[in-house]
Each structure stands twice: as C-alpha cells, then as structure tokens.
Design goal:
There is one protein chain. This protein is an alpha/beta fold. The chain folds into 3 domains: 3-84, Winged helix-like DNA-binding domain superfamily/Winged helix DNA-binding domain (Arc Repressor Mutant, subunit A, Orthogonal Bundle), CATH 1.10.10.10; 91-159 and 266-294, Periplasmic binding protein-like II (D-Maltodextrin-Binding Protein, domain 2, 3-Layer(aba) Sandwich), CATH 3.40.190.10; 162-261, D-Maltodextrin-Binding Protein, domain 2, CATH 3.40.190.290. Helices cover 39% and strands 25% of the residues. It has helices at 3-15, 18-25, 29-43, 59-84, 99-116, 168-173, 223-231, 245-250, 280-294; strands at residues 48-50, 55-57, 91-97, 120-126, 140-144, 153-160, 162-166, 189-192, 198-203, 209-213, 216-220, 236-240, 254-256, 260-261, 266-272. It has a 5-stranded mixed β-sheet with strand order 4-3-5-15-6, covered by helices on one side. A 5-stranded mixed β-sheet has the order 11-8-12-7-13. α1 (3-15) packs across α2, α1 packs across α4 and α2 packs across α3. The model has no long low-confidence stretch (mean pLDDT 84).
C-alpha cells in the first residue's frame, strides 16, 4: 500500500478535479490520475466515476474519503508545527553525565545554559553506570574516555590531568619535603579506587616512568571525600586538576611533586546519536558545552 496515493485521492476530492489537485500538489494531472488508478487497483475497488466534466465518488470512494480526510489534515497540521519549531530553543533535553563531572563542573554549566535558554528544560541524570543512549532516550551523554567503539558521534570537550595535592598544614608536619619518588614512604596517600594499588608517574623532562606501590590511608570512589581529606591534612591526594582549581586559588591545597605527571590523560566527550537531523536544542547544548570547556582547557 502506497499511502501517498490515499493523500492524493483525498486532495482530488477536496479540490473537485484532477487539474486543481495537480496544481496544489505540484505534479502533472496525468500523474495524479495514475496515482488514483493505482490506489483503486491496490484496493480492488472503484473509487471514482469519471466523465469529461466532473468526477463522482462511488459509495466506497465516499467511505474512504470520509475516513481519511480528518487524519490526513491532522498529520499535515502536526508536520507544520514540527517544521515551524525545529529552529526554536524550546522543549526537553535529556542529558546524562558521571557523578564526578556533574558535581564538580557541569552543574554550573547546566544552570548557566538554562539561564540563557529560558524555554529549554533539562532532564539530568548523574550516574557512574553506563547508560544506553538509544534505549534510555538520551540526547547527550557526557563521558570520560577512552570511549567504546560505537556508531555515535563524540565531540571532544577537554582533558583531565591527575596531579598530587596536599594542604600546607600536612606538608608543614613533615620535616622532609617530597622532592623525589623515594620520599613517598613516609607519607599518607588519599586515592580514588582505580589507584588503590599503584600509581605510575612520568618525569616531565626526562620522560622516565616510575610505578609506586602504595598503601592508601583513604581510598574512595567519591572525589569529594579524597579532596576533603587532603584539605583537612590527612594526606596527599591524587586528583584530576579540574576539581581543585578553587582550592589552589584559596591556598587550601598545594601541588606536590610537580616534576612528575600521570602519563594518561582522561579526555571528556559529549556523545550523541548522529549529526544528521540533529535537533536545535541538542546543537545549542553541545556548542555551549564546548564554549565552557574551552575556558578550562
């Protein structure tokens, strides 16, 4: 069944002739007549009685017209509304992000985005569990790399570098400063779960790497716990640089062993299903995330 033929048939009846319908549909009248004939052949029902001056509906043709004219009109109205609003910043946008990024950076970005776009609603789900973009109806997922191979589009935002941090009070309690990796044995470490057994460091100038076997005084999957422990002088924290900017500025934390760095950067991406027919809201959101990410790069 070619449902376009039904729409053509309905338009012929509404206009009262093949010629008038062909002008409205912007197709030859012969094509309009052929499409109606194809519909009759498919249904195996005669819908129209034709003569040189006018067309008349058969009983079954009248039934089909009455049943289809209202639904087709409703579809046309809905399509017009859809196309009229496709460039408007309006409606709901569903976003997911890891808890760490959501609490440390993105919460402010989300609020600022909404202040700029008053008619957009954000449905935000913070979770460290992987969410399927399609089945969970996600418009944009903010994710920490490395990413899984997929058919989705990944827009790079910024990178996170891990650095060692401690409070001035903690460093003051230890007579021997940390100048080399051999000085670690006397210190307490505060680590995220993925670093609880060892940490690999690379010297910035020589590029020589060293792996430290360590025992953590605090080990947690919550970055706020690790950071607060460092502020309170409980030890040296191994943290991504983006989450300690305020503490460095205030002097609550100080970078330690800055000659060494964690060899692997964690890249952060905005992931979405496709560039094709990307909604206006999604495009606005991704562009805004890129603008804000450029501020911390």
């Amino acid at each position: 069944m070619n449902y376009n033929n039904i729409a053509i048939f309905v338009e012929v009846i509404k206009q009262g002739s093949f010629i008038k319908a062909s002008k409205l549909l912007n197709m030859p009248s012969s094509t309009v007549s052929r499409k109606v004939s194809e519909l009759e052949a498919t249904l195996e029902v005669r819908l129209l009685e034709r003569n040189s001056r006018k067309i008349n509906l058969t009983k079954k043709g009248a039934f089909l017209f009455e049943q289809c004219v209202a639904p087709l009109q409703l579809i046309n109205q809905q399509v017009q509304e859809l196309t009229a609003t496709r460039h408007e910043a309006k409606g709901k946008l569903r976003v997911t992000a890891p808890v760490l990024l959501g609490n440390e950076i993105l919460n402010q970005w989300f609020c600022d985005f909404l202040n700029i776009n008053q008619d957009i609603e954000l449905d935000i789900h913070l979770s460290n569990q992987y969410q399927d973009i399609i089945s969970d109806n996600i418009d944009v997922a903010i994710r920490i790399g490395p990413l899984q191979n997929s058919q989705f589009i990944a827009q790079y935002l910024f990178s996170a570098q891990f650095v060692m941090y401690a409070s001035a009070s903690y460093l003051a309690q230890h007579a021997k400063p940390i100048k080399t990796v051999d000085d670690w044995n006397q210190h307490s470490l505060l680590l995220l779960k993925q670093h609880e057994k060892s940490v690999e460091l690379v010297h910035r100038r020589s590029q020589e790497s060293v792996r430290l076997s360590i025992k953590a005084r605090i080990c947690s999957n919550d970055i706020a716990v690790i950071r607060q422990g460092a502020i309170k002088g409980l030890g040296i924290a191994y943290l991504p640089d983006f989450c300690v900017k305020a503490q460095l500025k205030s002097g609550e934390l100080i970078a330690v062993l800055s000659d060494y760095q964690y060899p692997i950067k964690r890249d952060i991406y905005a992931v979405y299903p496709s560039k094709k027919h990307l909604s206006h809201n999604t495009r606005l959101f991704i562009d805004y995330m890129r603008e804000r990410a450029a501020e911390i790069s």
